[in-house]
């Protein structure tokens, strides 16, 4: 199978070379890798240049966006700029973070998954991060059938059906909800252990605290699903202020009548799916 990778990179000189080397080690190599240098002020561009001379699969795209790392919008905007210069001659598309080390057979396995089951629209492995003692531990805070945004692979048919990625907080939840709305399945392979070199959200801006609640509004969750999801999130991180921030964001978005990310029919499907999952876990 043919596949393309797009890597948004903002000030990633500490990790980028490891990520690109892990791509070169793949048993099934990509046809093209677009590294989007998003307003970096460190040595990120130098590293990209080195790899473009090392292998023809690598290409660089420089872009200038905000220096503020806001969850969702910044990374997806960079991804979409990379997407704009690619053709449609691929079987699956990959959005990859610039601080991930993949096992050597990662994309061979992803291709096998897509080939074996055409109903699978999104596939991926699991994230491992170093603990305080330097041991690699599973860090997968969401449901096991969720593919982390750090390394998402989309079949071409699914990617087209969901109309790509939404430039908003929660994009890596919206994509899976819309994939299921379009009758695709999500597949996670627990044999694929990817190393994440930087903890999630390490460089996020404090202004982002309301964005999760705003995303829940934009996904048409409604009050009760927002309540339950926010409480679960706050409990997991042991910070009840997260619950308050989410609701402030939700009501701010509602008051300001911010645009929805899904239409009414999709919103109804999403709410029904959420309630189904909640009831399954309770009973």
From TrEMBL:
Segments forming a coiled coil: none
GO MF: glycosyltransferase activity
Organism superkingdom: Bacteria
Keyword Transmembrane: no
Keywords on record: Glycosyltransferase, Transferase
Domain called Glycosyltransferase 2-like: residue spans: 5-153
Pfam families linked to this entry: Glycos_transf_2
Family, similarity comment: Belongs to the glycosyltransferase 2 family.
Classification via PANTHER family: POLY-BETA-1,6-N-ACETYL-D-GLUCOSAMINE SYNTHASE (PTHR43630:SF1)
Name listed for the protein in its UniProt record: Glycosyltransferase family 2 protein
Source species: Maribacter algarum
């Amino acid at each position: 199978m043919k596949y393309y990778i797009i890597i948004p990179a903002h000030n990633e000189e500490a990790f980028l070379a490891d990520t690109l080397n892990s791509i070169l080690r793949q048993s099934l190599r990509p046809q093209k890798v677009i590294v989007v240098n998003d307003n970096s002020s460190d040595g990120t561009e130098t590293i990209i240049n080195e790899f473009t001379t090392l292998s023809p699969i690598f290409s660089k795209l420089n872009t200038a966006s905000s220096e503020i790392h806001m969850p969702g919008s910044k990374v997806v905007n960079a991804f979409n700029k990379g997407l704009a210069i690619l053709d449609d001659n691929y079987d699956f598309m990959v959005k990859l973070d610039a601080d991930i080390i993949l096992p050597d057979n990662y994309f061979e396995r992803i291709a096998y998954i897509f080939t074996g089951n055409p109903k699978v629209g999104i596939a991926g492995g699991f994230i491992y991060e170093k603990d305080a003692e330097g041991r690699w531990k599973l860090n997968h805070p969401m449901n096991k059938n969720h593919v982390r945004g750090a390394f998402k692979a989309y079949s071409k048919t699914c990617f087209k059906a969901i109309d790509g990625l939404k430039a908003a907080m929660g994009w890596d939840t919206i994509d899976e909800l819309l994939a299921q709305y379009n009758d695709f399945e999500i597949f996670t392979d627990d044999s694929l252990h990817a190393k994440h070199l930087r903890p999630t959200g390490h460089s996020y801006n404090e202004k982002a605290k309301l964005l999760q609640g705003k995303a829940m509004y934009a996904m048409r969750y409604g009050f009760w699903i927002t309540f339950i999801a926010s409480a679960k999130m706050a409990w997991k991180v042991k910070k009840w202020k997260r619950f308050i921030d989410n609701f402030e964001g939700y009501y701010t978005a509602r008051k300001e009548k911010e645009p929805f990310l899904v239409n009414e029919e999709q919103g109804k499907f999403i709410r029904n799916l959420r309630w189904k999952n909640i009831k399954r876990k309770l009973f």
